[in-house]
Design a protein that fits this description.
single chain, alpha/beta, Rossmann fold, 2 domains, two-stranded antiparallel sheet, 13 helices
Amino acid sequence: MRFDLRQFRNSLFLVFTSSVFSLIIIELFCRLVIDDGMHYHLEMWKYAINLKQISKNPEIGHEHLPNKKIRLMGVDVETNNFGLRDDWIDKYPQEDVIRILMLGDSITFGWGVESDKTIAKRLENSLSLNLNRKVEVINAGVGNYNTSMQVEWFETVGLLFSPDIVLLNFFINDAEATPAYKEISFLDKYLYSKVIFLAGVDSAKRNFFGEKNWENYYRSLYSVDSSGWLDLKKSFLSMVEICKINDLPLIVLDYPEMRRLNPYPFKDISKKIERLSVANSVDYISLLPAIVSERPESLWVSVPDPHPNGYANKLISDFLTNELSQNPSIKYRLSK
């Protein structure tokens, strides 16, 4: 039988055009149907693409773009002159104002929560009332920051704000390694379908192919020889030293992982953070008591997304208001 080159080319062209057409249909489906503004993986991707940039400092990794506005996970997000989710900030606080700097990740940032309902903003209002003194709480939370990145950002940027008190917000994934970044490819920047596909692959790996589930993964970060845990401790000690040199009270706030609260599976890891804090004369506050009696799902931004929602932010900020109002470091600053 004689090979028909023309027929082969026609078949190849048909396969190619059919494939391209199918991919276009899939992409349109992802954009017009799946993307409802509350798809966790898509919203996190939009956050990374539209609101983050690679930092010139590799120890920081990434940072927010300043003066940007975008809608993410059902809420409006706006960054200020320093790329923080907060009001316009003057480098120097007004006279007779207590300035508190909150370092943290997407929880501090207020992922999926209106700006005026974040823990930082609620604390600003409630502490001002409780202490009968103007309090300014700067929300320096950036999604996907670990402790090492937060400390580096504080040393190079945060100190410029002349804070009176520093709150180091801890979450269990803070012992992850600082990521190394490269420029985003065209496909990574524009294809919704790729984001959804990779999210599905990741889920399949965890559910069917023996990848670590979230509990085992978190626990592995705190093994004795974990490089992330060693880096966290090193950065924490650096933070303690910086605060001592600058006469800054430092308080560690330990946020619980909200997928399981009672019994809480990570009390041993929280104990490690508490011991590390106490050993270095740093105040430690566990936030588990603020929400331990709640049904976990009632605290989430959405069922696939266990970031604390507005209700959880309120419970935590109410608890923190009471704790901080009686804290010796706060009282010390009030007396100055």
